[in-house]
Design goal:
heterodimer, A: Glutaredoxin, 4 helices, about 45% helix, B: alpha/beta, Glutaredoxin, Rossmann fold, Ubiquitin-like (UB roll), 5 domains, globular
Chain lengths: ~130, ~600
């Protein structure tokens, strides 16, 4: 461990660790951030949900969007896997089906950034607790 | 560069949860993750206390905030297989609201957390206490940096004074003023002492802070040292807190390695080191003069003040003694400003207070609420109400030095002055809740038993007076009380209070006085009606055999340990009240429900 000799040294360490702990800070304020739920049941994983999830985690970060990417169980839309549910702060969740990385890219660019809808929306037919 | 994890599993590593095997759980979670090749995606962190000790061990899964309770090590497999891999919540491990039977998945929706405001506990349950970097990421050591590089000692003292912070150890003395007095004492050597000798039965606020966020205390001690002109700090901690000691030692080592303790801190000429001194767990050593004597290697006995420690303390040098929780709040005051802190709380009690909830309450645990929160909110909303749907009777605040508060005090906003006015005290923050089955005379006796044990014996009122008080209470509970005892009890209580040397004796009769004030009818019933209204005092119990139901099977007679039951086979039995020790075995064993209590 090198010594901390100035406020700048402290800030440097802070910046690095803060980055690693961002998930915890963001989770504590989940209601003000974008939440992306990726259905990761057997059907989802088989259709490539894991790639989509990793894509979402990486790309959202690269594009400077603070978001919580949450893995969830089967949402029941096995015909349309991979499915993801996006909740913008203060808005109702929207479910997108048949999501691959290029669709995920569109969702980030159009829906998350600009609020425009993209094809492939599945009408939500349930309420969750 | 380390991996960035997409999921964090926060596992409580406080003493309570470790006792319920959370260390094994952490180990198994890590093994399971590794077996599934997920160790680079999911991080397992052992944190300090979440406060929700009633339902420990606890795991909080982020980013989805799922809150699993009462876990066993063997649940690790299911958590990884179901939640981590398939994203499915494990319903049987989620928290169930005891009143509505509703399952609550997200900790944010729990009544327990909704009303809380965590300042002293800001990092407990959030960071790994054994990792200084995580503390730094949460603005750790920024406050001391700010003090050393941007503020003069008197500016820092002013800030603490303006915040309205009062000592959290029990006395409620203004912290800033104490610092100012010590800073004005002239001496070559001064000391900062952290009082971690938490002795109230049922209290574990300080232990949890030291276990969950030791760096906040270290940082604040250094700030205090800067203010008063001290370069040495000592943490006086009871040896019964091995985990807190271990984490504190790790923290001290890490701070030293980073140069945050030692010489030339943040490139300035300020120097500060911290040592640990162990106490043997004597209650009186929480009193600052006794604590100082104990540190000096003398008997842990208090001495008359003045001189106050801020003038002549450890090794006769000016010494500033503050409690753990007081220190833990200081860095936040410096960073967020005194105005922010002073905006929380009531007129003369600012900020928040940590309480340890114990007794007959649903959510036993550690909470932090703004000053001015009512007892009703604490007990019924955060605490989840009384266990088993029983009726609330009283709450003892301030431990053995405090008093009991009753139903009529439920809407009282809690702060230093309101509790004192109501005949109790804030104390260090223990809250023991009692229900209708608890006898108030027996409760007072319990606390006196404690003070008799813990009295150092130096002054006569405390040594002899408390002993006599305890004897009288025992007499009452054993059904031997007479009318004169009641007056004597009250008078002697007042004398002990007025004439004792230190805080221990000056407050030890409080449980008697406040129960006599609020529940005099119970004392009356013990003496005049020969009964204990709540049924707790065994000596008043009378077991009888119902002649109509008894079939003379002899089971009770055979099981009675004192042969108090006589009778012939197939004839009604009789209990000899003179021999009966009221153990209740006969009632338990009778298959025909023919034994009843008066």
């Amino acid at each position: 461990m090198s010594k901390i000799k100035s406020l700048d040294d402290l800030r440097k360490i802070k910046a690095i660790v803060e980055e690693k702990m961002k998930l915890r800070e963001n989770s504590a304020n989940s209601e003000i951030h974008v939440q992306v739920k990726v259905a990761m049941a057997t059907c989802g994983i088989a259709s490539g949900a894991k790639t989509v999830m990793e894509f979402m985690i990486e790309e959202l970060e690269k594009r400077n969007i603070t978001a919580l990417v949450i893995q969830t169980g089967c949402m029941g839309y096995c015909f349309a896997e991979p499915t993801i549910e996006v909740t913008m702060p203060g808005k109702d969740p929207i479910v997108f089906g048949y999501v691959d990385t290029s669709k995920a890219d569109q969702i980030i660019e159009k829906y998350i950034k600009r609020g425009e809808l993209v094809d492939g929306i599945i009408p939500k037919n349930y309420e969750s607790i | 560069m380390d991996t960035k994890y997409r999921m964090h599993l926060l596992v409580c590593g406080g003493t309570g949860c470790i006792a319920s095997k959370s260390s094994q759980l952490i180990q198994l979670l890590k093994e399971e993750l590794e077996a599934n090749g997920l160790e680079k995606e999911v991080q397992v962190i052992s944190t300090g206390c979440f406060g929700f000790c009633e339902k420990g061990p606890i795991v909080k899964v982020l980013p989805d905030n799922t809150f699993y309770t009462q876990l066993k090590p063997e649940d690790a497999k299911e958590i990884v297989a179901e939640h981590v891999i398939k994203g499915r919540y494990i319903e049987r491990l989620l928290y169930v609201n005891p009143e509505t039977q509703e399952i609550i998945r997200d900790a944010k929706n729990m009544g327990f957390y909704r009303k809380q405001m965590r300042i002293a506990l800001r990092n407990c349950g959030f960071i790994n206490p054994e990792n200084i970097d995580e503390y730094i990421a949460r603005n750790g050591y920024s406050a001391i940096a700010k003090c050393l590089t941007e503020m003069t000692p008197s500016e820092v003292i002013d800030e603490v004074k303006k915040s309205g912070m009062r000592g959290r150890g029990g006395g409620g003395f203004p912290t800033g003023l104490k610092w100012e007095i010590t800073s004005k004492s002239i001496s070559d050597q001064k000391y900062v002492v952290c009082n971690a000798d938490e002795g109230d039965p049922g209290a574990f606020m300080d232990r949890s802070v030291l276990e969950g966020d030791p760096h906040s205390v270290i940082e604040a001690m250094a700030i205090c040292g800067y203010c008063i002109g001290a370069n040495k700090g000592i943490v006086y901690i009871r040896a019964e807190y091995p985990l807190a000691i271990k984490r504190l030692k790790i923290a001290l080592q890490q701070a030293k390695e980073y140069g945050l303790l030692g010489e030339n801190i943040f490139g300035t000429d300020f120097e500060f080191t911290i040592d640990i001194k162990y106490g043997a767990g004597a209650f009186v050593c929480g009193e600052e003069t006794a604590l100082i004597h104990s540190m000096e290697g003398l008997r842990g006995e208090p001495t008359i003040k003045p001189p106050f420690p801020s003038v002549s303390g450890y090794l006769t040098q000016p010494t500033n003694v503050n409690n753990v929780e007081t220190f833990a709040s200081i860095p936040v005051i410096i960073l967020k400003g005194s105005e922010w802190f002073a905006s929380i709380g009531t007129e003369y009690s600012k900020g928040t207070k940590v309480f340890a909830l114990a007794g007959k309450i649903n959510n036993v645990g550690l909470i932090e609420v703004p000053m001015g929160t009512t007892l009703r909110e604490v007990i019924f909303e955060i605490g989840g109400g009384i266990k088993d749907g029983k009726k609330f009777k009283a709450v003892q605040t301030g431990g053995p030095s405090g008093g009991c508060l009753t139903e009529k005090h439920l809407d009282l906003p809690i702060d230093f002055d309101s509790l004192t006015a109501a005949g109790s005290m804030m104390g260090s923050g223990g809250m023991i809740v009692m229900d209708e089955d608890d006898c108030m005379v027996a409760m007072a006796k319990f606390y006196l038993e404690f003070t008799v044990e813990e009295s150092c014996g130096k002054c006569a009122p405390c040594r002899i007076g408390n002993k006599r008080l305890h004897e009288m209470l025992t007499k009452l509970c054993e059904a031997n009380g007479v009318e004169e005892d009641l007056d004597l009890l009250r008078n002697l209580s007042v004398v002990v209070k007025d004439t004792s040397l230190c805080g221990l004796g000056q407050t030890s009769p409080n449980p008697i006085l406040s129960t006599m004030e609020n529940f005099y009818e119970e004392y009356h019933a013990h003496v005049f009606d020969h009964k204990c209204p709540s049924g707790q005092c065994q000596s008043f119990r009378r077991y009888y055999i119902d002649a109509e139901h008894c079939i003379g099977c002899m089971v009770c007679a055979r099981n009675c340990p004192t042969n108090a039951i006589t009778g012939v086979k197939k004839q009604v039995h009789i209990i000899n009240q003179l021999i009966c020790i009221k153990c209740g075995v006969c009632m338990e064993k009778c298959k025909f429900d023919s034994i009843y209590l008066n």
